[in-house]
Structure formats: C-alpha cells, structure tokens
Amino acid sequence: MPHKLLIRLVDAEYAITRLNIGSSMPEWLPGPGFWTVSSSREEMTLVCRAARVPSSVQSSLGWRCFRVEQHFAFDVPGVLASVLRPLSDAGVGVFANSTFSTDYIFVAGSDLDKAVQALKDHGHELTT
Predict the structure, then answer these.
(1) 84-99: pLDDT as tens digits
(2) Residue 8 and residue 99: Cα distance in Å, rounded?
(3) How sure is the predictor about 2, in pLDDT bands with cuts at 50, 70 and 90?
(4) Reduced to 3 states, what is the DSSP secondary structure of residue 99?
(5) What is the CB neighbour count within 10 angstroms for residue 51?
(6) What's the longest Cα–Cα distance across the chain?
(7) Whole-number mean pLDDT of the chain?
(8) d(CA 59, CA 47)
(9) Angle between helices 79-89 and 112-121 (to 10 degrees)
(10) Where is the A9CJY8-like N-terminal domain (predicted)?
(11) Domain at 6-127: CATH code
C-alpha cells in the first residue's frame, strides 16, 4: 500500500448534482476542471465546478476536490484507501470518483481544514 501520496487541492468549488434518469447531458456540464457523469437505474449524478450549475438544478454545493497526483496500475491495492481511511478516522465524509489514471476525493468545504490536517498527519504531501 502506498504510504505517502502527493495530493493536490484543486482551487475550485464543486457541486454534486442529481438529474432524473434518462435526462440528456446538459450543455453547462463540460468545461474547465474535473467533471463526470454517472448513471444508475435510479438517477444521473453529475460533478463539476459549482459556478456552472444553474440554481434551478438539485445540487449539493460547496464541495472541495483533492486529486491524487501519482498514477498507479489498477492492481495496486490500497491507493484510495490510504486517502479515505485518515479522512474517515477524522470524521470527514467523502464523495469519491476515479478516472483511468487517478482518483478524485471530494469533501464538504466546511470539513476542508480537518481533511487537510488528517491527510498531512497520515504522511501525505499536499500541494495547490
């Protein structure tokens, strides 16, 4: 398991948005920064910078994003756990997303200071 990761705090506020299943991808979703669409039988979940989300859309605002800067093969165990465990131990809730190359971990803005301290205490290096 990786013991020390380089983790970037992304300089933007994010929103986690819910749309009804079968909705088309909105034109405001793509743009700068991380964004993603997940779909299940129950709903579509969109994540993007909060500034792009119309106020009429059901959203949870004020999320901050951490990005794991290293890239690991899919079969390397414990990468995401090494970030989630210290956050959980500190009482910080998360919303996580992974891409082909890395992981993105979102925390409520009100928990940002606690999250940063927990990650540093666990030996991770944080950058902006």
Answers:
(1) 999 999 999 999 999 9
(2) 15
(3) low
(4) coil
(5) 13
(6) 43
(7) 94
(8) 9
(9) 120
(10) 13-55
(11) 3.30.2130.10
